[in-house]
Amino acid sequence: MAYKNRFVLAAAAALLSLGLATTALAAPSNFSVQADELEYDLGSGEAVAKGSVVLKQDGGVATANYARFNSKTKSGVLTGNVVADREDMHITCNEFIVHNENDLSAVGGASISKAGKRLNADRVNYYKEREFAETIGGWARLTDSDGSTLNAAKIDYNMAAGVANAYGGVDINSPARNLTASADSAVYKTDNSGYVELIGNAKATQNGNSVAGDKLRLTNTNVAIADGDVKIIYIPEKQPAVLGKEKQGAEQALA
Q1: CATH level 2 (architecture), domain 116-255
Q2: Could you identify which of 19, 84, 165, 168 might form a hypothetical disulfide with 153, taking C-beta atoms 3.0 to 4.6 angstroms apart as the criterion?
Q3: For 1-114, CATH number?
Q4: How far apart are CA 16 and CA 49, in angstroms?
Q5: Do domains 1-114 and 116-255 have the same CATH topology?
């Protein structure tokens, strides 16, 4: 049984990488696998872990109800209440598919968080070498650290460059800035000096004021740049009534 488990532990290395910080199977690494039941086929390289599965490697941890993986192809699937953490990346989903050392898919209520941003969708494909994520399904949401949300039918997120592209029914809500916006598509530069560019039927409203056009660019300094059939609605702030000189003098005397 000890011999059998030793092979199971070695096979787990491919799956433990989770595509987040992969290490070649032959490279030195610290890893372990725990489960209620472990099985391994020496001929095919197939392994199965059942019940309270915990996979660890060099600080990365993944938990699930069930896991099936292959030590030769370095691929596998975790299912049931999957939670995976590696450095600053956190993933939750119902099914976690490791296609190879670099490519993975989170399926069923998928959520991937990194650097204060969270991407949600029915399915998220992640490609480690490019640090690129894409959503699959009819909806997607990118949430910022201040609670602002960008909703769309599809979102592609280049995490290395900090640029997200949103397509189809884009809707933005930023309570921190009292801002809402909508467009056919959008480009979101996610760093602190970034911007949101709204493309097609673009509209933004902030503090009761709105601007619309074929294209809008909203900056972090609350500047809006509009192009094409621009429409602006501006509501001036109410100013306090000016007191007459006599009333002012009376109030000053009372003061």
Answers
A1: Sandwich (2.60)
A2: 168
A3: 2.60.450
A4: 13
A5: yes
If pLDDT is split at 50, 70 and 90, which confidence band does 248 have?
low
Per-residue pLDDT, 76: 85
What's the burial of 203, exposed, middle or buried (CB within 10 Å: 0-12/13-18/19+)?
A: middle
Domain residues of the chain, as ranges? 1-114, 116-255
Q: What are phi and psi of 123, to 5 degrees?
A: -145, 135
- Asked whether residue 18 carries a pLDDT value surpassing 60, the answer given is no
**Percentage of the chain exceeding pLDDT 90:** 48
Q: Which 3-state string (H, E, C) describes 180-241?
A: EEEEEEEEEECCCCCEEEEEEEEEEEECCEEEEEEEEEEECCCCEEEECCCEEECCCCCCCC
The pTM score is 0.78
Residue in the structure block whose two tokens are 């409203």: 205
